[in-house]
């Protein structure tokens, strides 16, 4: 199966289920952003709304029936909410309420206070997700993600299992173990993390800031070598990397992973709790593409982390790291299937 076949499968399924949606507004503090819609010509994916949640004013997409089963979908780096621009309308057409937020440092999401530490450690991002659920009045949801977003979904599921109905994670159980931060990998494995060590230097921070979009495009090609995305697709996402806190947060995320940056003390209790969680029990589907050029563990390495009903799906046809955008029908089907377990 080729990447084009995955896209045709999506279009066929969308046509069969009727992907045209009537978007209903939100009440309370949620308002449409003053910026342009999330994707011009993609009316089923938008508009971007704003709501105060925890330390942030969050930009997010919210489509589908208000009484539908909630699905929280999280993007990664250097991607954005458009990773789900085809997945979200498909799920909404099946009766799910789909929420796709800009993570801190992306798009229209902003900190409410200049005094807040610009931390992108795993528990900060997870706490943001729970705060958004609280702000939207969502008690329980299906969590899904890819890259940073998969880690976010896994950390949320580990720390707040009562809030997670089911889990869909690309590349498995991606919770970081801080006790291994200084444990070196093999030379070949270290090489695949070159950007992490680049960001650990001041030269790397300056270089990312100076060459932001070129850097992101390079990572897209490296992580998904067989994905033939066009300029318009890249430009939609790259525009959301232009955020006043983006560079600082990306650099902090990667530095903190290897003990090269201080973390935010307010999240230390969550980090301590997280270190004690070795497994999750909610229904889970993990996915992996056959052309993932980014560092990722083999499926066998994380199988034991999932003690509930579980399935791993290996996709073929040149599917890379940004799986929800490269194989939207497969990702959406995983959400639909796990919701029925």
Automatic annotation (TrEMBL):
Xref: Pfam families: Abhydrolase_1
SUPFAM superfamilies reported for this sequence: alpha/beta-Hydrolases (SSF53474)
Record InterPro entries: AB_hydrolase_1, AB_hydrolase_fold, AB_hydrolase_sf, Epox_hydrolase-like, TAT_signal
The keyword Hydrolase belongs to this UniProt entry's keyword annotation: yes
Keywords: Hydrolase
Chain segments annotated as transmembrane: none
Superkingdom of origin organism: Bacteria
Molecular functions (GO terms): hydrolase activity
AB hydrolase-1 domain mapped to chain residues: 70-179
The protein's name in its UniProt record: Alpha/beta hydrolase
Natural source organism: Roseateles chitinivorans
Species classification: Bacteria, Pseudomonadati, Pseudomonadota, Betaproteobacteria, Burkholderiales
